[in-house]
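User: I'm new to structure prediction. If I give you an amino acid sequence, what do you actually give back? Let's try with this one:
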Amino acid sequence: MLTYVSLVKFSQQGLQTMKDKGVERAEMVKKNAQALGGKLVQAYYCLGEYDVVAIWDFPDNKTAMKAAVMNASLGHIQITTMPAVNRDEWKSLLQETIGKKK
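Assistant: Good question. You get back a string of structure tokens that encode the predicted 3D arrangement of the chain. For your 102 residues, that looks like this:
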């Protein structure tokens, strides 16, 4: 599985219906990803520019894109999803690309 990070902003509709549907929609977002073979690793609710930062596992980019489109189409969020690698993977890529320091 590959790791993805989603930066999420609540839409005006999402904010207006948060009290009645907020928890239900959060579960639906998670279930949509699961139905595509993905997994929500963790979601962090934030102050500032983004309302949520979510960490996902998906089999590939197309599946991550499908989940993002499916969840954004619910109307309560705007979502930007990007692939990510952990620090060890990044170090390995860096060493492969520019060589090891001696």
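You can read the tokens as a compact description of the fold. Here is one thing that stands out. The two ends are 33 Å apart (CA to CA).
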